[in-house]
Here is the input.
Amino acid sequence: MNVTMKSYHEPIDVAVGDDGLPRTWRWRKSVWRVLRILDRWVLQSRWWTSECAEKRAYLLVEAVPETRAESCSCAVEIYLKGDGDAWILARILH
Amino acid sequence: MPGFWHASSTDATRLFMFVHLHTRSWFSFRAGGSGPVDLVQRAAHLGQPALALTDRHGVYGTVRFHKACRDAGVHAVLGAEVLVDDAPLVLLARDAGGYRDLCQLLTRAHLTAAGIALLDDGQMPPDTSDPLPTDRRTVPSVTLTDLATLSARLLCLTGGRDGHLWHCLAHRRYKAAQHWLGTLHDVFGDTLYVELTHGLLPEDGRVALRLHDLATAEGVPLVVTNDVRFATPLHWQRYDLLTCMRLNHPVAEPHQQRPRNAEAYLKSAAQLQRLLPFCPDAFERTVEVAERCRVDLVPEYITPPSANLPEGISANKLLVDLCGAGLDRLYQPAGQAAAQAQLHKELDIICGLELEEFFLVVREVVAEAKSRGIRCAGRGSAANSIVAYLLGITAVDPIRHNLLFERFLHGGRKGTPDIDVDFDSDRRDEVISWMEQRFGIEQTAMTATLITYKLRLALRDVAKALGWPMTKVDQLSQSVPSGLARDVAEHRRTITKVLGTSPLTELLLLRVADLHLCPRHLGLHSGGMILSRKALSHFTPVQVSANGVKVVQFDKEDVEAMGLVKLDVLGLRMMACLSEGASLAQRHEGVDIDFDGMPLDDSKVYQLICSGATVGMFQIESQGQMHLIARNQPETFDDLVAEVALFRPGPLQSGMVHPFIRRRRGWDPVVYEHPSLEPILRDTYGIILFQEQILDVAHRFAGMSLAAADDFRSLMSKVHDPVRMQEMGVLFIAGAMERGIPQAVAESVFENVSHFIGYGFCRSHAAAFAQTVYHSAWMKRYHPAAHMAAFMQHRPGFYNLMTLEEEARRFGVPVLLPHINHSGTRYDLTRDRAGVLAIRKPLTAVKGLSDEVAEQIVWARMAGPFTSVENLAPRVFLDRKVLDALARSGALDVVAGNSRDALWQAGVVANRLASATHADTSTLFDMPLLLPEDLPELQALTSAERLSWDYKTHGAGRTHPICLARRQLTDLHIQPIDACFRFVPLDMVQPAAGSGTGGTTKNKSAPPFGADLRRQDGATAAGSGTGGTTENKSAPPFGADLRRQDGAMITVAGVVIMRQRPPTAKGFMFITLEDETGFLQCVVRPKLYKQYYDTLIQPSIIFRGQLQATGGWRGIIVHEAWPLEGVFGGYSGFPSASGGQDHLDDGAAVVLTGKAHGDSTAATPPDPDTVRKVG
Here is the structure.
């Protein structure tokens, strides 16, 4: 099975549920729906630089654009920057 | 942040009871980020009923962890991370047997890493003295076979994210994972658990699921852990930094061993449950596992080693018999009654505490040493005991010196008795070897010492990790004095000067302060030797230090807490000095010296002490002691005991010294606040001087029990805790009032007692030390050559070699250079051309010349003296550097004419030899190594070069460096230091005011005109022609008033030989300045310390100040300071307790720039206003 991956690192507008987990997001004029959470992790680095200290809380989700069927879903890597500043779409794996 | 990332750590629902079973503390030595106390407090805060401590390769933090758990009401589970076939496993001890097996496994791991093979039966080999160097050791590890033999009482967890199981499943190597799990199951059976963890790293979720599935398929139960590395997320940065420092890796670069997030902290069950929702039973099982582990580490009793008892004789009987024999030997019949009474009292207590064997064992050790001719003496509070005295352990008569046994031992005292024995430092290893053989290799080892981060080391390691270049790192660590890491902000200005102002510098300050108390590595305690009845593996793993010494994993406090008996086997260099001095006196002067039988009342010895010429005397050679002696003027042994005890933080900080001296000298009346204090304080003139007196006051005046009084004494000796002090005060005053003492009096006495803050000596310890003081003073008085030679050999003091040589010369003892045909391997005596007994410096005094090479030279010389450099080189193989050093030192002057010629010839000969070797011509013995054309006419050494070469090669010059500058200094009206001694204090001319009752004890009339006040004892200093000056080199100026009182202003210059700023001195700094006429203490007030800081760290200084005179002592209170250029031989650096001798200026820069004084090439005379550094 061939898996292709494309990097984007673009901001997305996420709507979260009561548990804080993303339900949908808007990206490039499309709305994506999260089907399930596949994995989660946190990366932190550069604590020694006050300007560039970074924390990213990643989610690997199975998601699909609202206009497509669930069978067309793909794995998408999104992350929350810092202490909840912004959501970023990192990569899409087809 | 959304809730799923950071579930509240105080989640009210408390979904599960849970215990962290895999936790590292900072006792994993830079592989864990929090102390045991922080971890335990975090667990308690989370409501977790237990906590396991599982540090890497050891149980170093176990005792502190155990205590913290007890204090917090948390059940302690003891274990460790152990490498098994290079795969980490977590092993937990089920019971005492399991703990012992764990210790044995860890011992095996450490010895294997050090390249030491255990015996076939797994026992310790008798000789561990040749381990692998630490940089070649492997990581401590055991094999599965080792583990299988010791697994019965251990529980095993599969090791978290670093474990082999996790690693296999992360790479989908299912068969390998299954195999490993099966292998472990074969060893551990139902005591094996698969460790399920989720560190919020990529793939962790998937691997956790694979682990769950594998464990379920194989029927191995699961437990959840978080593979904890630190207590809270706040400690993550410290943990990452420590990791980088351990790996010697900059923080700015990634490394696979570094943590990629801050999630490895002590989380709550709820936080972990959100990550691992599929196995609730794995949480509950952690509590079951914890409950299966019960190890009680700290017993209520001590376990002394076994004494050597004759057949059919009990320890008690043997002790009583030996004491009886001692009583007859040491006391006259008339004086035995008091001794008998004391003996009975002590034996009752010793037997009640079941310590008979302990005393017999110590006696055995001391007796063995003495039978081998090894000088030794017990000290510490043990010297309070008549039993110790009668057994020959101590040499201080407790009846004669009114010593208090209860300070050493009483029925209520907990823990092991404290006995220290000083041995001749040269032969201490012999004693330790014997003890290992006698008590068993498995039963003996040294205690460890915990090396924690202090200021300089923390700055060094952190700056390096933050990316500063090594040149800056070196500069930084040398720019600050030693101190605590948490006080780094006090040096902000200096640090910023070195590194510049930047956010990174601020980060450095923050991180350095954060390392306060953090352990860096384990070191070796200098003397604490554990003697155990059982094999030490019952209590602790044993490692091997870099030089092959067996060492346990605990420091002395932890060792005592475990009920182990420790005997301090200390090497005292003064003991070695006295032994060697006696041997030299016997060989060269034909006298036999018996220190043990020596009376302690020779007035000439006390006169020498009172003159202040105390360099070379035990404990009293510091400037502070010289000043104290000048005021106190000890005349008897009891005075000497008080002298030794006065100069301690306790009496100093409590302000007891001044009133003691005034009362003793008869200048103030002796008064007691209450009559009941008189018997306790009579012999110290109503002043509290000794620890025993505090105990006695608390017991007899305030009515405390002995146990409470001992606690009270201990509290006074340690850090001042205001809350506890108040509690004690209430108890003290109430107890005194119950005995009918008025409240005001009780309060006043408590006030006095409470000022005795900080450590003070116990009387027995002071008495034991005073004996050695007396012996060293006696040797200097009657055998100065032997004593100073032995002193230079062993260097038990803190003055440098130049000062010692000058002191020897002041006492009429010439010091002769190293000589290729006359020097041996040790300092020795010889007669000089005038027939005077002189010290001959050994070959080993030459830098780089080892004992082995010196022995080779001496052996080769037996075939005939060396006649030239050419003759020397083929007969003894000498490294080029060593040959050069010999030449520069002057040792070859006798065969080469002078040092420069010797150096030239050494170079030619060395090159020729090297060529001959390479050419393989075997003409080594045929070919001349030196030809006439090889020997040009070379310029003579300048004075500065001569002096610099001397300093560089054998640590001291033939003349004092200041001699080179004396002419210029005189032109500037800068006086020699001995000018200070020509001033006489008024109290030497007339009695001091208010001295109606007795007046001064000495010097009731002014000395003769022009007398050198340092020679008041009448001891000779004849023939002091070899450098230095003592006696009246010039008469004082015509018309000088020798009775001018102190307070006159004077300007002196010299090299700095010592710099101190004791914590008890309230910011004052003391610099000892030396010139060719002597040395002087210069006192710098705190304000001037800040103003002249950059000058005060220079190696040579000019001071202008106000003269202070007390008896034979002189000092100045500094008013102004300037650096002295063009002179070397002093020490630059920072003040410290050891004397602040950071860096010796050996003249390299001076010689290079030709800026020395006294040379034809010298530059302009010194300008006191110039601030430029030399070198």
Summary: The first strand of chain B starts at residue 50 and ends at 56. The radius of gyration of chain B is 34 Å. The interface with chain A takes residues 1-5, 200-206, 236-237, 240, 251-252, 260-263, 275, 466, 503-504, 507 of chain B (CB under 8 Å). Confidence is low (pLDDT under 50) at residues 1-15, 989-1045, 1155-1175 of chain B.
